[in-house]
Write a structure and sequence with these properties.
Blueprint lengths: L2 H63 L2 H21 L3 H6 L6 H20 L1 H5 L12 E2 L2 E2 L2 H25 L8 H34 L6 E9 L9 E11 L2 E9 L15 H7 L16 H16 L5 E5 L1 H11 L2 E3 L7 E3 L4 H12 L3 H21 L4 H13 L3 E5 L2 H7 L15 E10 L9 E8 L2 E2 L3 E2 L1 E9 L3 H5 L3 H4 L11 E8 L4 E8 L8 E5 L2 E10 L4 E10 L6 E6 L7 E4 L4 H4 L2
Helix pairs in contact: 1-2, 1-4, 1-7, 2-4, 4-6, 4-7, 6-7, 10-11, 10-12, 10-13, 11-12
Length: 606
Protein backbone atom coordinates (compact mmCIF):
# COMPACT_ATOMS: atom_id res chain seq x y z
CA UNK A 1 0.00 0.00 0.00
CA UNK A 2 1.34 3.43 -0.92
CA UNK A 3 1.98 6.01 1.76
CA UNK A 4 -0.80 8.18 0.27
CA UNK A 5 -3.37 5.39 0.59
CA UNK A 6 -2.31 4.66 4.14
CA UNK A 7 -2.64 8.32 4.97
CA UNK A 8 -6.16 8.40 3.54
CA UNK A 9 -7.16 5.39 5.69
CA UNK A 10 -5.69 6.98 8.79
CA UNK A 11 -7.62 10.22 8.16
CA UNK A 12 -10.83 8.21 7.49
CA UNK A 13 -10.35 6.28 10.78
CA UNK A 14 -9.77 9.48 12.66
CA UNK A 15 -12.94 10.97 11.09
CA UNK A 16 -15.00 7.95 12.03
CA UNK A 17 -13.69 8.03 15.59
CA UNK A 18 -14.33 11.74 15.76
CA UNK A 19 -17.90 11.23 14.51
CA UNK A 20 -18.49 8.46 17.09
CA UNK A 21 -17.05 10.68 19.83
CA UNK A 22 -19.34 13.52 18.82
CA UNK A 23 -22.30 11.13 18.76
CA UNK A 24 -21.48 9.83 22.24
CA UNK A 25 -21.06 13.37 23.48
CA UNK A 26 -24.38 14.38 21.96
CA UNK A 27 -26.14 11.40 23.54
CA UNK A 28 -24.56 12.21 26.91
CA UNK A 29 -25.66 15.80 26.55
CA UNK A 30 -29.22 14.67 25.78
CA UNK A 31 -29.20 12.31 28.76
CA UNK A 32 -27.87 15.04 31.01
CA UNK A 33 -30.44 17.48 29.66
CA UNK A 34 -33.27 14.97 30.09
CA UNK A 35 -32.08 14.10 33.58
CA UNK A 36 -31.87 17.78 34.47
CA UNK A 37 -35.31 18.41 32.94
CA UNK A 38 -36.91 15.52 34.78
CA UNK A 39 -34.99 16.18 38.00
CA UNK A 40 -35.90 19.86 38.16
CA UNK A 41 -39.54 19.21 37.25
CA UNK A 42 -39.68 16.38 39.76
CA UNK A 43 -38.38 18.59 42.57
CA UNK A 44 -40.82 21.33 41.61
CA UNK A 45 -43.74 18.87 41.51
CA UNK A 46 -42.80 17.35 44.86
CA UNK A 47 -42.63 20.85 46.33
CA UNK A 48 -46.10 21.67 44.99
CA UNK A 49 -47.51 18.53 46.60
CA UNK A 50 -45.80 19.26 49.91
CA UNK A 51 -47.38 22.70 49.93
CA UNK A 52 -50.77 21.24 48.98
CA UNK A 53 -51.16 18.98 52.05
CA UNK A 54 -51.61 21.70 54.72
CA UNK A 55 -53.84 23.63 52.33
CA UNK A 56 -56.07 20.57 51.96
CA UNK A 57 -56.50 20.48 55.74
CA UNK A 58 -57.31 24.19 55.69
CA UNK A 59 -60.10 23.63 53.15
CA UNK A 60 -61.74 21.11 55.47
CA UNK A 61 -61.45 23.29 58.58
CA UNK A 62 -62.63 26.44 56.77
CA UNK A 63 -65.76 24.72 55.47
CA UNK A 64 -66.63 23.30 58.89
CA UNK A 65 -66.08 26.69 60.60
CA UNK A 66 -68.24 28.49 58.03
CA UNK A 67 -65.32 30.64 56.81
CA UNK A 68 -66.45 31.27 53.21
CA UNK A 69 -63.54 33.59 52.34
CA UNK A 70 -60.95 31.26 53.89
CA UNK A 71 -62.42 28.24 52.10
CA UNK A 72 -62.40 30.00 48.72
CA UNK A 73 -58.80 31.14 49.17
CA UNK A 74 -57.63 27.69 50.29
CA UNK A 75 -59.42 26.01 47.39
CA UNK A 76 -57.79 28.36 44.87
CA UNK A 77 -54.35 27.60 46.33
CA UNK A 78 -54.99 23.87 46.42
CA UNK A 79 -56.13 23.80 42.79
CA UNK A 80 -53.03 25.78 41.75
CA UNK A 81 -50.64 23.41 43.57
CA UNK A 82 -52.36 20.29 42.19
CA UNK A 83 -52.55 21.56 38.60
CA UNK A 84 -48.88 22.61 38.61
CA UNK A 85 -47.76 19.24 40.02
CA UNK A 86 -49.78 17.37 37.40
CA UNK A 87 -48.50 19.58 34.56
CA UNK A 88 -44.90 19.08 35.70
CA UNK A 89 -45.24 15.29 35.72
CA UNK A 90 -47.22 14.56 32.57
CA UNK A 91 -45.20 15.90 29.60
CA UNK A 92 -43.83 13.50 26.90
CA UNK A 93 -40.25 13.58 28.23
CA UNK A 94 -41.44 12.64 31.73
CA UNK A 95 -43.59 9.80 30.38
CA UNK A 96 -40.67 8.46 28.32
CA UNK A 97 -38.18 8.46 31.22
CA UNK A 98 -40.77 6.83 33.49
CA UNK A 99 -40.04 3.57 31.61
CA UNK A 100 -36.33 3.62 32.45
CA UNK A 101 -35.39 0.94 35.04
CA UNK A 102 -34.20 2.38 38.35
CA UNK A 103 -35.49 5.88 37.64
CA UNK A 104 -38.95 4.95 36.40
CA UNK A 105 -40.61 3.91 39.71
CA UNK A 106 -39.79 7.30 41.24
CA UNK A 107 -41.35 9.20 38.34
CA UNK A 108 -44.36 6.90 38.17
CA UNK A 109 -45.06 7.35 41.89
CA UNK A 110 -44.76 11.11 41.76
CA UNK A 111 -46.83 11.30 38.59
CA UNK A 112 -49.49 9.07 40.15
CA UNK A 113 -50.06 11.21 43.23
CA UNK A 114 -50.00 14.34 41.08
CA UNK A 115 -52.74 12.86 38.89
CA UNK A 116 -54.72 11.98 42.00
CA UNK A 117 -54.46 15.54 43.34
CA UNK A 118 -55.47 17.01 39.99
CA UNK A 119 -58.47 14.69 39.74
CA UNK A 120 -59.70 15.77 43.17
CA UNK A 121 -59.27 19.49 42.56
CA UNK A 122 -60.76 19.39 39.06
CA UNK A 123 -63.91 17.49 40.01
CA UNK A 124 -64.60 18.04 43.71
CA UNK A 125 -63.50 21.48 44.87
CA UNK A 126 -66.33 23.47 43.32
CA UNK A 127 -68.84 21.35 45.24
CA UNK A 128 -66.91 21.81 48.49
CA UNK A 129 -66.64 25.56 47.91
CA UNK A 130 -70.41 25.83 47.76
CA UNK A 131 -70.76 24.32 51.22
CA UNK A 132 -68.75 26.97 53.05
CA UNK A 133 -71.15 29.21 54.95
CA UNK A 134 -74.02 26.75 54.47
CA UNK A 135 -72.73 23.73 56.39
CA UNK A 136 -70.57 23.90 59.50
CA UNK A 137 -70.30 22.45 62.97
CA UNK A 138 -73.04 24.87 64.06
CA UNK A 139 -75.40 23.06 61.69
CA UNK A 140 -75.65 20.45 64.43
CA UNK A 141 -76.44 22.99 67.16
CA UNK A 142 -79.72 22.42 68.98
CA UNK A 143 -81.95 25.49 68.68
CA UNK A 144 -85.37 25.62 70.26
CA UNK A 145 -84.91 22.05 71.39
CA UNK A 146 -84.27 20.72 67.86
CA UNK A 147 -81.60 20.34 65.20
CA UNK A 148 -82.52 22.10 61.96
CA UNK A 149 -82.11 19.31 59.42
CA UNK A 150 -82.87 21.49 56.37
CA UNK A 151 -79.23 22.62 55.81
CA UNK A 152 -78.11 19.00 55.95
CA UNK A 153 -80.69 17.90 53.41
CA UNK A 154 -79.82 20.77 51.04
CA UNK A 155 -76.09 20.02 51.33
CA UNK A 156 -76.49 16.33 50.46
CA UNK A 157 -76.09 16.64 46.63
CA UNK A 158 -72.96 18.80 46.86
CA UNK A 159 -71.45 16.55 49.50
CA UNK A 160 -72.16 13.49 47.37
CA UNK A 161 -70.37 15.07 44.38
CA UNK A 162 -67.41 16.17 46.49
CA UNK A 163 -67.17 12.75 48.08
CA UNK A 164 -67.27 11.00 44.69
CA UNK A 165 -64.28 13.09 43.59
CA UNK A 166 -62.43 12.38 46.82
CA UNK A 167 -63.05 8.63 46.59
CA UNK A 168 -61.86 8.64 42.96
CA UNK A 169 -58.68 10.49 43.92
CA UNK A 170 -58.14 8.20 46.89
CA UNK A 171 -58.45 5.14 44.64
CA UNK A 172 -55.85 6.65 42.26
CA UNK A 173 -53.47 7.30 45.16
CA UNK A 174 -54.03 3.79 46.55
CA UNK A 175 -52.78 2.38 43.26
CA UNK A 176 -49.48 4.25 43.52
CA UNK A 177 -46.68 1.87 44.51
CA UNK A 178 -43.58 2.97 46.42
CA UNK A 179 -41.66 -0.19 45.50
CA UNK A 180 -38.23 0.87 44.21
CA UNK A 181 -38.85 4.51 45.13
CA UNK A 182 -36.11 6.40 46.97
CA UNK A 183 -36.74 6.92 50.69
CA UNK A 184 -37.53 10.67 50.85
CA UNK A 185 -39.91 10.47 47.89
CA UNK A 186 -41.56 7.30 49.20
CA UNK A 187 -42.14 9.06 52.52
CA UNK A 188 -43.71 12.06 50.76
CA UNK A 189 -45.95 9.81 48.66
CA UNK A 190 -47.11 7.93 51.76
CA UNK A 191 -47.81 11.23 53.54
CA UNK A 192 -49.98 12.27 50.63
CA UNK A 193 -51.82 8.95 50.57
CA UNK A 194 -52.47 9.14 54.33
CA UNK A 195 -53.85 12.66 54.08
CA UNK A 196 -56.10 11.81 51.13
CA UNK A 197 -57.40 8.74 52.97
CA UNK A 198 -58.11 10.91 56.02
CA UNK A 199 -60.01 13.50 54.00
CA UNK A 200 -61.88 10.90 51.94
CA UNK A 201 -63.00 9.25 55.18
CA UNK A 202 -64.31 12.62 56.33
CA UNK A 203 -66.18 13.34 53.09
CA UNK A 204 -67.65 9.84 53.08
CA UNK A 205 -68.95 10.29 56.62
CA UNK A 206 -70.25 13.79 55.87
CA UNK A 207 -72.03 12.66 52.71
CA UNK A 208 -73.66 9.72 54.46
CA UNK A 209 -74.68 11.93 57.38
CA UNK A 210 -76.32 14.45 55.07
CA UNK A 211 -78.18 11.63 53.34
CA UNK A 212 -79.22 9.74 56.48
CA UNK A 213 -79.67 12.19 59.34
CA UNK A 214 -82.64 14.24 58.05
CA UNK A 215 -84.79 11.12 57.74
CA UNK A 216 -83.45 9.47 60.87
CA UNK A 217 -84.07 12.65 62.88
CA UNK A 218 -87.73 12.64 61.84
CA UNK A 219 -87.71 15.13 58.99
CA UNK A 220 -90.57 13.23 57.33
CA UNK A 221 -92.32 12.19 60.53
CA UNK A 222 -91.54 10.82 64.02
CA UNK A 223 -88.94 8.06 64.41
CA UNK A 224 -88.52 5.92 67.52
CA UNK A 225 -85.29 4.26 68.62
CA UNK A 226 -83.94 1.96 71.27
CA UNK A 227 -80.59 3.07 72.67
CA UNK A 228 -78.67 0.21 74.26
CA UNK A 229 -76.10 1.47 76.77
CA UNK A 230 -73.54 -1.33 76.91
CA UNK A 231 -71.56 -2.33 80.00
CA UNK A 232 -67.96 -3.23 79.03
CA UNK A 233 -67.26 -4.66 82.49
CA UNK A 234 -69.15 -7.73 81.25
CA UNK A 235 -68.03 -8.13 77.66
CA UNK A 236 -70.03 -9.12 74.63
CA UNK A 237 -68.86 -9.03 70.99
CA UNK A 238 -70.24 -5.55 70.35
CA UNK A 239 -68.77 -4.13 73.56
CA UNK A 240 -70.76 -5.38 76.54
CA UNK A 241 -74.12 -6.42 77.92
CA UNK A 242 -76.97 -3.93 77.35
CA UNK A 243 -77.11 -2.54 80.88
CA UNK A 244 -79.77 0.02 80.09
CA UNK A 245 -82.43 0.24 77.35
CA UNK A 246 -83.60 3.76 76.49
CA UNK A 247 -86.57 4.57 74.24
CA UNK A 248 -86.33 7.92 72.41
CA UNK A 249 -88.36 9.72 69.74
CA UNK A 250 -86.93 11.96 67.02
CA UNK A 251 -89.41 14.35 65.39
CA UNK A 252 -88.25 17.10 63.00
CA UNK A 253 -84.88 17.25 64.68
CA UNK A 254 -86.18 17.20 68.25
CA UNK A 255 -85.13 14.22 70.36
CA UNK A 256 -87.37 13.26 73.28
CA UNK A 257 -86.41 10.90 76.09
CA UNK A 258 -89.43 8.60 76.51
CA UNK A 259 -88.71 5.57 78.72
CA UNK A 260 -85.88 3.60 80.23
CA UNK A 261 -85.52 0.07 81.58
CA UNK A 262 -82.72 -2.10 82.88
CA UNK A 263 -81.44 -4.63 80.37
CA UNK A 264 -81.86 -7.33 83.01
CA UNK A 265 -85.64 -6.72 83.05
CA UNK A 266 -86.02 -8.29 79.56
CA UNK A 267 -86.03 -12.09 79.69
CA UNK A 268 -85.41 -14.85 80.06
CA UNK A 269 -87.82 -15.88 77.34
CA UNK A 270 -88.73 -19.53 76.85
CA UNK A 271 -87.26 -19.48 73.35
CA UNK A 272 -85.43 -16.96 71.14
CA UNK A 273 -87.77 -14.08 70.33
CA UNK A 274 -86.86 -14.44 66.67
CA UNK A 275 -85.30 -17.37 64.87
CA UNK A 276 -81.53 -17.32 65.17
CA UNK A 277 -79.28 -17.94 62.19
CA UNK A 278 -77.66 -21.37 62.49
CA UNK A 279 -74.08 -20.00 62.84
CA UNK A 280 -75.23 -17.64 65.62
CA UNK A 281 -76.88 -20.52 67.44
CA UNK A 282 -73.82 -22.75 67.03
CA UNK A 283 -71.37 -20.10 68.21
CA UNK A 284 -73.31 -18.34 70.95
CA UNK A 285 -76.35 -20.46 71.75
CA UNK A 286 -80.07 -19.77 72.08
CA UNK A 287 -79.49 -17.41 75.01
CA UNK A 288 -78.57 -14.80 72.37
CA UNK A 289 -82.29 -14.45 71.68
CA UNK A 290 -83.61 -15.16 75.18
CA UNK A 291 -81.99 -12.38 77.28
CA UNK A 292 -81.66 -8.69 76.39
CA UNK A 293 -78.23 -8.76 78.05
CA UNK A 294 -77.09 -11.44 75.59
CA UNK A 295 -78.30 -10.02 72.26
CA UNK A 296 -74.82 -8.55 71.70
CA UNK A 297 -73.08 -11.92 72.00
CA UNK A 298 -72.98 -12.02 68.19
CA UNK A 299 -70.80 -9.43 66.44
CA UNK A 300 -73.54 -9.11 63.80
CA UNK A 301 -75.21 -5.99 65.17
CA UNK A 302 -78.05 -6.27 62.67
CA UNK A 303 -79.08 -9.50 64.44
CA UNK A 304 -78.55 -7.94 67.90
CA UNK A 305 -80.72 -4.96 66.96
CA UNK A 306 -83.56 -7.05 65.58
CA UNK A 307 -83.56 -9.23 68.71
CA UNK A 308 -83.67 -6.15 70.97
CA UNK A 309 -86.48 -4.62 68.89
CA UNK A 310 -88.45 -7.89 69.05
CA UNK A 311 -88.07 -8.05 72.85
CA UNK A 312 -89.28 -4.48 73.15
CA UNK A 313 -92.28 -5.17 70.92
CA UNK A 314 -93.14 -8.36 72.78
CA UNK A 315 -93.18 -6.45 76.06
CA UNK A 316 -94.80 -3.17 74.99
CA UNK A 317 -96.42 -3.89 71.61
CA UNK A 318 -94.39 -1.10 69.97
CA UNK A 319 -92.23 -1.35 66.85
CA UNK A 320 -89.15 0.88 66.63
CA UNK A 321 -87.49 2.61 63.69
CA UNK A 322 -83.99 1.60 64.70
CA UNK A 323 -81.57 0.49 67.39
CA UNK A 324 -78.39 2.25 68.54
CA UNK A 325 -75.72 1.06 70.96
CA UNK A 326 -72.88 2.84 72.72
CA UNK A 327 -70.81 2.28 75.86
CA UNK A 328 -69.53 4.22 78.92
CA UNK A 329 -66.26 5.08 77.17
CA UNK A 330 -68.40 6.73 74.47
CA UNK A 331 -70.24 8.55 77.28
CA UNK A 332 -66.83 9.75 78.50
CA UNK A 333 -66.15 11.40 75.13
CA UNK A 334 -69.67 12.90 75.08
CA UNK A 335 -69.17 14.37 78.58
CA UNK A 336 -65.94 15.98 77.36
CA UNK A 337 -68.17 18.00 75.02
CA UNK A 338 -71.14 18.63 77.34
CA UNK A 339 -69.27 19.12 80.60
CA UNK A 340 -70.17 17.37 83.88
CA UNK A 341 -73.68 16.24 84.84
CA UNK A 342 -75.21 15.64 88.26
CA UNK A 343 -76.97 12.33 88.87
CA UNK A 344 -79.56 12.05 91.66
CA UNK A 345 -79.45 15.75 92.52
CA UNK A 346 -80.71 16.45 96.05
CA UNK A 347 -80.54 12.79 97.14
CA UNK A 348 -77.99 10.90 99.23
CA UNK A 349 -76.85 9.23 95.99
CA UNK A 350 -76.02 12.59 94.33
CA UNK A 351 -72.95 12.18 92.11
CA UNK A 352 -71.20 14.42 89.64
CA UNK A 353 -70.08 12.58 86.53
CA UNK A 354 -67.46 13.99 84.20
CA UNK A 355 -65.24 12.70 81.41
CA UNK A 356 -62.63 12.04 84.11
CA UNK A 357 -64.66 9.68 86.29
CA UNK A 358 -67.68 8.34 84.36
CA UNK A 359 -66.08 5.06 83.24
CA UNK A 360 -64.80 4.18 86.71
CA UNK A 361 -68.05 5.32 88.32
CA UNK A 362 -70.29 3.20 86.07
CA UNK A 363 -68.09 0.13 85.64
CA UNK A 364 -66.33 -0.19 88.99
CA UNK A 365 -67.32 2.19 91.80
CA UNK A 366 -71.05 1.48 91.48
CA UNK A 367 -70.54 -2.13 92.59
CA UNK A 368 -68.67 -1.11 95.73
CA UNK A 369 -71.15 1.66 96.48
CA UNK A 370 -74.38 -0.32 96.10
CA UNK A 371 -74.69 -3.91 97.26
CA UNK A 372 -78.01 -4.74 95.58
CA UNK A 373 -78.00 -5.34 91.78
CA UNK A 374 -81.27 -3.40 91.53
CA UNK A 375 -79.58 -0.33 93.04
CA UNK A 376 -76.63 -0.71 90.69
CA UNK A 377 -78.96 -0.93 87.69
CA UNK A 378 -80.90 2.11 88.92
CA UNK A 379 -77.72 4.21 89.16
CA UNK A 380 -76.60 3.06 85.70
CA UNK A 381 -80.05 3.98 84.30
CA UNK A 382 -80.10 7.37 86.06
CA UNK A 383 -76.63 8.25 84.79
CA UNK A 384 -77.57 7.31 81.20
CA UNK A 385 -80.82 9.30 81.41
CA UNK A 386 -79.09 12.40 82.78
CA UNK A 387 -76.43 12.38 80.06
CA UNK A 388 -78.96 11.81 77.26
CA UNK A 389 -81.24 14.54 78.57
CA UNK A 390 -78.39 17.06 78.48
CA UNK A 391 -77.43 15.85 75.02
CA UNK A 392 -81.02 16.25 73.77
CA UNK A 393 -81.17 19.80 75.16
CA UNK A 394 -78.11 20.75 73.14
CA UNK A 395 -75.96 21.78 76.10
CA UNK A 396 -72.70 21.28 74.24
CA UNK A 397 -70.26 22.74 71.76
CA UNK A 398 -71.20 21.40 68.28
CA UNK A 399 -67.58 21.19 67.11
CA UNK A 400 -66.53 19.40 70.31
CA UNK A 401 -69.45 16.99 69.94
CA UNK A 402 -68.57 16.24 66.31
CA UNK A 403 -65.02 15.45 67.43
CA UNK A 404 -66.38 13.23 70.19
CA UNK A 405 -68.57 11.25 67.80
CA UNK A 406 -65.74 10.95 65.28
CA UNK A 407 -63.61 9.33 68.00
CA UNK A 408 -66.50 7.12 69.13
CA UNK A 409 -66.95 5.93 65.54
CA UNK A 410 -63.23 5.35 65.01
CA UNK A 411 -63.13 3.16 68.12
CA UNK A 412 -66.28 1.31 67.03
CA UNK A 413 -68.12 2.23 70.20
CA UNK A 414 -71.26 3.24 68.28
CA UNK A 415 -73.49 0.86 66.30
CA UNK A 416 -76.59 1.84 64.35
CA UNK A 417 -79.31 -0.30 62.76
CA UNK A 418 -82.31 1.06 60.85
CA UNK A 419 -85.57 -0.72 60.08
CA UNK A 420 -85.52 1.12 56.73
CA UNK A 421 -83.84 -0.94 54.00
CA UNK A 422 -82.41 2.08 52.13
CA UNK A 423 -80.87 3.46 55.30
CA UNK A 424 -79.41 0.05 56.12
CA UNK A 425 -77.79 0.00 52.69
CA UNK A 426 -76.17 3.39 53.38
CA UNK A 427 -74.88 2.12 56.72
CA UNK A 428 -73.83 -1.33 55.52
CA UNK A 429 -70.17 -0.68 54.68
CA UNK A 430 -69.49 1.74 57.54
CA UNK A 431 -68.12 1.03 61.01
CA UNK A 432 -71.54 2.00 62.43
CA UNK A 433 -73.20 -1.17 61.13
CA UNK A 434 -71.15 -3.38 63.46
CA UNK A 435 -69.27 -6.60 62.68
CA UNK A 436 -68.02 -8.83 61.29
CA UNK A 437 -65.08 -6.69 60.22
CA UNK A 438 -65.26 -5.19 56.72
CA UNK A 439 -62.10 -5.01 54.61
CA UNK A 440 -61.25 -1.82 52.76
CA UNK A 441 -59.82 -2.18 49.23
CA UNK A 442 -56.33 -3.68 49.38
CA UNK A 443 -56.92 -4.91 52.92
CA UNK A 444 -57.72 -8.14 54.75
CA UNK A 445 -59.45 -7.14 58.02
CA UNK A 446 -60.06 -9.81 60.64
CA UNK A 447 -62.39 -9.65 63.65
CA UNK A 448 -61.55 -10.59 67.25
CA UNK A 449 -64.64 -10.62 69.46
CA UNK A 450 -64.68 -11.24 73.21
CA UNK A 451 -67.50 -12.31 75.53
CA UNK A 452 -67.48 -12.77 79.30
CA UNK A 453 -67.91 -16.33 80.59
CA UNK A 454 -67.45 -15.51 84.26
CA UNK A 455 -71.00 -14.24 84.77
CA UNK A 456 -69.63 -11.14 86.48
CA UNK A 457 -68.06 -7.72 85.91
CA UNK A 458 -64.41 -8.83 85.85
CA UNK A 459 -63.68 -7.48 82.37
CA UNK A 460 -62.92 -4.13 83.98
CA UNK A 461 -59.54 -5.74 84.70
CA UNK A 462 -58.99 -7.44 81.32
CA UNK A 463 -56.20 -6.25 79.00
CA UNK A 464 -56.04 -7.26 75.35
CA UNK A 465 -53.18 -7.18 72.86
CA UNK A 466 -53.49 -8.25 69.22
CA UNK A 467 -50.45 -8.68 66.97
CA UNK A 468 -50.77 -9.10 63.21
CA UNK A 469 -48.33 -10.66 60.74
CA UNK A 470 -47.97 -11.87 57.15
CA UNK A 471 -45.16 -14.46 56.97
CA UNK A 472 -44.37 -16.14 53.64
CA UNK A 473 -43.41 -19.78 54.03
CA UNK A 474 -41.79 -21.78 51.21
CA UNK A 475 -43.94 -24.88 51.72
CA UNK A 476 -47.34 -23.17 51.82
CA UNK A 477 -46.85 -19.61 50.59
CA UNK A 478 -48.17 -16.45 52.30
CA UNK A 479 -50.11 -16.73 55.56
CA UNK A 480 -52.03 -14.34 57.81
CA UNK A 481 -51.43 -14.48 61.57
CA UNK A 482 -53.65 -12.96 64.27
CA UNK A 483 -52.08 -13.40 67.72
CA UNK A 484 -54.33 -12.64 70.71
CA UNK A 485 -52.89 -12.07 74.19
CA UNK A 486 -55.27 -11.64 77.14
CA UNK A 487 -54.10 -10.61 80.60
CA UNK A 488 -55.93 -10.59 83.93
CA UNK A 489 -54.71 -7.34 85.48
CA UNK A 490 -55.96 -7.90 89.04
CA UNK A 491 -54.01 -9.44 91.91
CA UNK A 492 -55.36 -12.25 94.09
CA UNK A 493 -55.45 -9.89 97.09
CA UNK A 494 -57.47 -7.31 95.17
CA UNK A 495 -59.85 -9.97 93.83
CA UNK A 496 -60.56 -11.26 97.34
CA UNK A 497 -61.93 -7.82 98.30
CA UNK A 498 -64.33 -7.55 95.36
CA UNK A 499 -68.10 -7.86 95.84
CA UNK A 500 -69.46 -11.21 94.65
CA UNK A 501 -71.46 -9.39 91.97
CA UNK A 502 -68.14 -8.28 90.42
CA UNK A 503 -66.01 -11.39 91.00
CA UNK A 504 -68.79 -13.85 90.20
CA UNK A 505 -68.55 -15.35 93.68
CA UNK A 506 -67.39 -18.66 92.30
CA UNK A 507 -70.57 -19.31 90.32
CA UNK A 508 -70.54 -20.94 86.87
CA UNK A 509 -67.54 -23.00 88.00
CA UNK A 510 -65.16 -20.02 87.79
CA UNK A 511 -62.98 -19.34 90.84
CA UNK A 512 -63.00 -15.90 92.46
CA UNK A 513 -60.48 -13.64 90.70
CA UNK A 514 -60.44 -15.71 87.50
CA UNK A 515 -61.60 -14.15 84.24
CA UNK A 516 -63.19 -16.54 81.75
CA UNK A 517 -63.34 -15.19 78.21
CA UNK A 518 -64.87 -16.62 75.07
CA UNK A 519 -62.84 -15.51 72.04
CA UNK A 520 -64.45 -15.68 68.59
CA UNK A 521 -62.17 -14.84 65.67
CA UNK A 522 -63.67 -14.13 62.26
CA UNK A 523 -61.57 -14.52 59.14
CA UNK A 524 -62.16 -12.56 55.94
CA UNK A 525 -64.12 -13.80 52.91
CA UNK A 526 -60.75 -14.21 51.15
CA UNK A 527 -59.20 -16.48 53.80
CA UNK A 528 -59.74 -19.87 55.42
CA UNK A 529 -58.96 -20.74 59.03
CA UNK A 530 -55.85 -22.92 59.29
CA UNK A 531 -54.88 -23.53 62.91
CA UNK A 532 -54.79 -22.17 66.45
CA UNK A 533 -51.56 -22.52 68.42
CA UNK A 534 -50.64 -21.71 72.02
CA UNK A 535 -47.50 -19.67 72.66
CA UNK A 536 -45.54 -22.92 73.12
CA UNK A 537 -46.65 -24.13 69.69
CA UNK A 538 -49.16 -26.73 70.90
CA UNK A 539 -52.59 -26.86 69.28
CA UNK A 540 -55.38 -24.84 70.92
CA UNK A 541 -58.78 -26.62 70.83
CA UNK A 542 -61.27 -24.50 68.91
CA UNK A 543 -64.85 -24.71 67.75
CA UNK A 544 -64.98 -24.05 64.01
CA UNK A 545 -68.14 -22.66 62.39
CA UNK A 546 -68.72 -21.36 58.89
CA UNK A 547 -70.69 -18.11 59.18
CA UNK A 548 -71.69 -17.11 55.68
CA UNK A 549 -68.52 -16.50 53.66
CA UNK A 550 -66.32 -16.32 56.77
CA UNK A 551 -64.48 -18.84 58.93
CA UNK A 552 -65.20 -18.37 62.64
CA UNK A 553 -62.94 -20.03 65.22
CA UNK A 554 -63.92 -19.95 68.90
CA UNK A 555 -62.07 -20.90 72.08
CA UNK A 556 -62.32 -20.22 75.83
CA UNK A 557 -59.57 -18.89 78.12
CA UNK A 558 -59.48 -18.94 81.94
CA UNK A 559 -57.05 -16.46 83.48
CA UNK A 560 -56.12 -16.46 87.15
CA UNK A 561 -55.09 -13.13 88.74
CA UNK A 562 -51.99 -11.79 87.00
CA UNK A 563 -52.02 -14.55 84.37
CA UNK A 564 -51.74 -14.11 80.58
CA UNK A 565 -52.66 -16.32 77.64
CA UNK A 566 -51.46 -16.07 74.05
CA UNK A 567 -53.11 -17.86 71.13
CA UNK A 568 -51.84 -17.59 67.55
CA UNK A 569 -54.52 -17.93 64.87
CA UNK A 570 -53.27 -18.81 61.37
CA UNK A 571 -55.28 -18.22 58.18
CA UNK A 572 -54.63 -19.30 54.59
CA UNK A 573 -55.47 -16.86 51.79
CA UNK A 574 -57.60 -18.11 48.93
CA UNK A 575 -55.80 -18.29 45.59
CA UNK A 576 -54.97 -14.87 44.20
CA UNK A 577 -56.30 -13.03 47.26
CA UNK A 578 -54.02 -10.73 49.25
CA UNK A 579 -53.88 -7.42 51.06
CA UNK A 580 -52.40 -5.73 54.09
CA UNK A 581 -53.61 -7.26 57.35
CA UNK A 582 -55.79 -5.35 59.83
CA UNK A 583 -58.18 -6.22 62.65
CA UNK A 584 -61.25 -5.02 64.54
CA UNK A 585 -61.39 -5.96 68.22
CA UNK A 586 -64.29 -5.72 70.69
CA UNK A 587 -64.12 -2.23 72.28
CA UNK A 588 -63.24 -2.51 75.96
CA UNK A 589 -62.70 -0.50 79.15
CA UNK A 590 -58.92 -0.66 78.76
CA UNK A 591 -57.30 0.40 75.50
CA UNK A 592 -56.78 -2.51 73.13
CA UNK A 593 -53.26 -2.73 71.67
CA UNK A 594 -53.20 -3.64 67.96
CA UNK A 595 -49.74 -3.80 66.43
CA UNK A 596 -47.57 -5.43 63.78
CA UNK A 597 -45.87 -8.64 64.88
CA UNK A 598 -43.02 -10.67 63.40
CA UNK A 599 -43.66 -14.39 63.01
CA UNK A 600 -41.36 -17.11 61.68
CA UNK A 601 -42.61 -20.04 59.65
CA UNK A 602 -41.49 -22.33 62.47
CA UNK A 603 -43.90 -20.55 64.80
CA UNK A 604 -46.95 -20.87 62.57
CA UNK A 605 -46.52 -24.26 60.87
CA UNK A 606 -46.24 -26.57 63.89
Amino acid sequence: MSSAAADRLTRRGRGRRSWIAWLIAAVLLVIIAVAAWVGVRGMLAANELRQALPVASRVQSSVMSGDTTGAASAITQLRSHADKAHSLTSDPVWNLVAHVPGIGPNLTALGGVSASAASITDHGLSSIAGLAGKLSADTFKVKGGAIDVAPLASAAPALAKADAAMQSGERLSRGVSTAGVIGPLASAVNDYKSKITEISTFTDAASRAATLLPGMLGDSGPRTYLVLVLNNAELRSSGGIPGSVVHVTADHGKITFDDQYSGSSFGPYNAPVTKLADPTNQLFGEITGEYMQDVTLTPRFDQSAQLAAAMWKQRFGQSVSGVISLDPVALKYILAATGPVTVGAGTPEQTELSSNNVVKALLSDVYARFSAPAQQDAFFDAASATIFTKLARGDFSPSAMLSAFARIGDERRLNVWSADAKERAELADTTLSGGPAKSAPGEQRFGVYLADGTGSKMDYYLHTKVELGQPVCSKVGPLYVVQVTLTNGITAAQAAKLPAYVSGGGEFGVAVGTIRTQVTAYGTPDTEFGSALDSDGSAEPVKFVKDGDRSAAQYVVDLKPGQSSTVRLVYNPKKGKSGRIAADVTPQVNRVSISKGTFTCGQVLK
